Amino acid sequence: MSTMTIIGFAASILTAVCMLPQLFKIIREKRAENISYGMLVTLMTGLALWVVYGIMKEDWFIVISNSFSFIVNTVILILSWKYKR
C-alpha cells in the first residue's frame, strides 16, 4: 500500500469520526446548546457532495466514510433540535 493511499485512508477515517465526541457529549448530557445549525448544514452539504463524487468515481471508501459522517451529523442535528433549550 502506497504512502498516498495510507494518508487518504487516515484522512477519511479521521474526518468520518471527528464528530463522534460531540455526538457522545450530546447523548450523555441530553443538552445541545451552542450548536451551529449553519455549520452542520454546510458540513452535511459538503459530505453529501463527497458521497456523490465517490459514487461517480466508484471510490467506495470515499462513499462509505462520508456516508458514515453524514449519518453522524444527521443524528447530531436531530438531537440538537430535540435537546435545544
Written account of the structure:
This protein has 85 residues and is an all-alpha fold. It has a single domain (3-83), classed as Monooxygenase (Up-down Bundle), CATH 1.20.1280. Helices cover 82% and strands 0% of the residues. It has four helices and no strands. Helix 1 packs parallel to helix 4 (60-83) and helix 3 packs antiparallel against helix 4 (60-83). The protein is elongated, with a radius of gyration of 14 Å. The mean pLDDT is 92.
Secondary-structure map:
Layout: H1 3-17, H2 20-29, H3 37-57, H4 60-83
Q: What distance separates the N and C termini?
A: 49 Å
Total count of strands: 0
Mean pLDDT: 92
- Reported by name, the CATH topology is Monooxygenase
Shape: elongated
CATH class wording: Mainly Alpha
> In the CATH classification, which architecture applies?
Up-down Bundle
Q: Treating each run of at least 4 consecutive H or I residues as one helix, how many helices?
A: 4
What share of residues are in beta strands? Answer: under 5%
Main β-sheet: number of strands, strand sense, barrel status?
none
Helix/strand structural class? mainly alpha
Number of domains: 1
The value of Rg in angstroms is: 14 Å
